[in-house]
Amino acid sequence: MVDVTDQELDVQKLRRDTRTLGQRFFAALYRPQNFRNAMFVLLVAELYWPAFWPVWIFLVWALRMSFDDQKFRMPLRIPKDIGGLDHTDFVDERIIEKAFWGMMSKSRIMRKILPAAGIVYLGYLRTPDETEAGRELWLTNSDARTHMFVAGTTGSGKTESLLGLVDNAMTWCSAVLYGDGKASLALPFSIWGLARRHGQEDNFQLLNFLTGGIDPFEVERLQKELIVKNIVMLWQSNSFNPFGSSPFDFLLQLLVSMLVKAEGSGAEWRDKAINMIDALLRILAFKRANGELEISVQVIRDSLALQNLVKFYLEGQQGLLPELAYLPIKAYFETGLPGFVPSLAHDPTQWDKEVYNQHGYLTGQFTRVLSLLTDQYGYIFQDKYPEIDVNDTLMNNRILVVLIPSLSKSPEEASAVGKLYVSAIRLSMGMNLGYQLEGKKAEVLEKRGSVGRYPKLLINDELGYWFAIGIAVMFAQARELNCMMVAAVQDTQGLKRGEAKDESGSLIANTKVKWCLALEDADDTFELIRKSGGQGYYSVLSGYNEASSMLLSSYEAQGAANIQEKDRITLKELKKLQQGEGMVIFKDSVVPVASYYIPNEHKQSTVLAPRINRLLQIERPKSNRLAAAGAKVSARNPRQASGKVSQLLATETRPDYPEIEDPILDAVVDAASKLSGSDEHSATAVERGIVLYEVALQAMREAQRKDMGPFFHRVVEVEEPEEIAVADYNKLDDYPDED
């Protein structure tokens, strides 16, 4: 292969530094290492020529004042823990000043510099300048909530960069919702490892739509065989039921969003089907509020049968349903279902065949959606009381990973799963927007669950495979709800393939931080990044002059330089980026960055096995039960407890607790006693904690060497004496005293 780039000129060598000599000198002097060396030289000069000490003192004072007066800037923001003022973060305020005893006034703009507040670490600066390389890139809470768009081809390090953002959120103890359209098991494995490292593995949740091509009937057969051996085979996912506690209007929007778009006569049938399902969901929501049932996908599917809908209609005629729930089902049967005769509702044998046909056409609109959720993903949606509640995940700062199988499923099914996930997040956001206006600020605005010091992180990776309608609205609304939205794609064409293609422009426009890794798409994706980076003016070498002699010829750079307007980002720069390297575009800055990378040994444990937190199915308490339980507790007789204590004292028998050998507890108690009884040194609370921790750790290792089991203690078997009756007090002398 012929290398055609050996004659290519390096762009960095063509550009010229047009700063003055003084500007370049002081820029080099004020670098910390150079300034330290200069101060050392002045110190030596003062000792060598002490007669000029006033000059040296004045020079040192002037240089130090000038050095301290520098406006220190980071590539993006200054991290919060450094403190001080961040001159890149400011607000301009208009101030009106009075003059001549208030007879005249004038206004001026005052720039208010904000304190350092960087909390999101992206990586460090890439630059050939060794004095600048390695400077950290940070974003503030406000910057993060302007949202982020990440683009990178396969192998560019996009997932690893996003895991760096996840690690940021875990250090804040904030919520993390990660939707992955690539559905790689390495992702939840790594996130669980990070959660374990941060002590948050109890908050880890997994919504796994991957089935691995396993036949559900084969799984059922294996479960029956293993249950005989007391082995339980569990699906590798938590359960999820977005229909369980949502209001009926959300349930309607959820089911409608999963329908395929229709045109012409199909759109007319689609609208009729929506009216029918709306009537059903209102009734189910009413019955759920009364404690008669719990809504699930299977309940909705069973209730769609014509006979079941007619039962609800008859209940409404008998006055068992409120008007809000009865009127829609009444309108459906009396005006929306051709051939149905209300007077024959009690006798199904006299119903016209056309009634079944018409109803079948309408229910057919939802057959595929409900079959997908019930039959294919029943292991996720079959529980009445699910383990995952998106609102709970967001408000209580849990960690949720969603694996969307775009490879093993059709684009339509992957999009349907994406719609379900997106709709659940939209419901949670809508609930936290609130509705109450009357009240004080603390009651209306500050008590919302979305208020917090750190943003909640919502990552949508490989979004092109499951881009669903409604995501753009989330990006527009999430800032108020204290959420940081991240959209990650391989190319922007993927956002324009699905039915939500009209929202792709709005989504990109609502992301203020653009992060581009290695790129191969020279069309739409590169054009987006190029335009976002903008153009700049550069001083460029105008050319070379040939300098020839009798034997040799060479070229010398011309002394002149031209000013040219060029793109800040070129396709060549993006194509040659290594894994994890990229360009961050924020406001008018284009910053080369090396992403925050977490080594595999820090996020993928080779010793600990990840565990999915599975919860028990517990029926929600009902209002009548709560009232009865409250009355029972309040009426409890306090003498009942004292009577049991008196009975134990009268029998003079010790409670049947096993004797336990616990070396860890014994070591900690012994160390605590020595610390409390020591007069030589009074340990502080921190010192006591360190000592007790080390003692417990040493005792735990000793117990592990003795093979005392996973709990590091064991039950001591003692010979039980014969039972002594209350009246046989004299027999107590026959037994040795117990310590």
TrEMBL record:
<keyword id="KW-1133">Transmembrane helix</keyword>
<feature type="transmembrane region" description="Helical">
    <location>
        <begin position="47"/>
        <end position="67"/>
    </location>
</feature>
<dbReference type="InterPro" id="IPR027417">
    <property type="entry name" value="P-loop_NTPase"/>
</dbReference>
<dbReference type="InterPro" id="IPR051162">
    <property type="entry name" value="T4SS_component"/>
</dbReference>
<keyword id="KW-0812">Transmembrane</keyword>
<keyword id="KW-0472">Membrane</keyword>
<protein>
    <submittedName>
        <fullName>IcmO (DotL) protein</fullName>
    </submittedName>
</protein>
